[in-house]
Amino acid sequence: MQACPVQPQWRRPFSDRLLAALRLDATVFEEVERDEEAIGQAAAVIFLSSVAQGLGAIDAPSIPALLGGLAGLVVAGFVGWIVTSGLIWVIGVKFMGCTSDYGELLRTLGFASAPKILFLLGVLPLGVASYALGFAVMLLSTVASVLAVRHALDVTTGRAIAVCVTAMMVSFMVALVVGTVTGVGMGLAQ
Predict the structure, then answer these.
(1) Residue 9 covered by a domain
(2) 187 belongs to a structural domain
């Protein structure tokens, strides 16, 4: 008797995963949590969202200034992704006793940045509606982050919110201390 071959687990293509993350489809976070090969796709989402943020807020006086600004945003996007994932891992796993590995958080939080691609709509002449766009995108990104953390840490939505709020408070306090020490953000550094 011959054994049946094991069927490979079905995986959505990148474009389907990206659209699912934009729709806040929780199944995509569960899928990328388990797919170790999705780290490149998560990095692509970070890249796309960083570029979209830069293009959506164009005010560069020249092409070189625009490219320099975009490069800075891409670097900041990747650094923020890595640091935030690490912070959430420490809070969730070390302090709250959740189960996850750093890679799971990197993948899910990378895809949680998908709503930021909507910042690209900022190239349209929206006037004061651009504030509504910014608020809506940040709200969608926050919900996506909670979904990502919920699936990566295998916790309830309430605990995922607690982890995200704690990480936000820690990030704010660090930024406040760094800003106070360096004078950045207070008009002191020129």
Answers:
(1) no
(2) no
Q: pTM of the entire structure?
A: 0.85
Return the pLDDT at 179.
78
- 190, part of any domain: no
What is the mean predicted confidence (pLDDT) over 113-128? 91
* Residue for token pair 């293009």: 55
Instruction: Count other Cβ atoms within 10 Å, centred on residue 13.
Output: 9
| Interatomic CA distance for residues 98 and 188, integer angstroms | 41
Q: Sort 32 into a burial class: Cβ within 10 Å, 0-12 / 13-18 / 19+.
A: buried
Instruction: Work out how many domains the chain is built from and give that number.
Output: 1
> Given phi > 0 = left and psi -120 to 50 = alpha, else beta, which region is 189?
beta
Residue ranges making up the domain that contains 156: 14-182
Share of the chain above pLDDT 70, in %: 87
* Within-domain flag for 1: no
Rounded to an integer, the average pLDDT of 80-92 is 94
Query: How far apart, in whole angstroms, are the C-alpha atoms of residue 117 and residue 51?
Result: 8
Three-state secondary structure string covering 31-67: HHHHCHHHHHHHHHHHHHHHHHHHHHCCCCCCHHHHH
